[in-house]
Amino acid sequence: MEINNLLGMDTHIVIGIVNERLRLECHSMAELASRYELSEAELSEKMAQQGYHYDPLNNQFK
């Protein structure tokens, strides 16, 4: 899956991809953003539009 187009995808698909990458590859949202050249602010905003917020204790969007 091409993660570069992540911000253009449906939020319900993005939540699954992002949480999987956070669980398996990245220890924080900052690391995820850096690794995949994403904007943390844009990702957070996209997720917030559907009521999801990053939980750093669990390293996932809920």
From TrEMBL:
It comes from Photobacterium carnosum. InterPro entries: DUF4250. It comes from the Bacteria. This is DUF4250 domain-containing protein. Pfam families: DUF4250. The lineage of its organism: Bacteria, Pseudomonadati, Pseudomonadota, Gammaproteobacteria, Vibrionales.
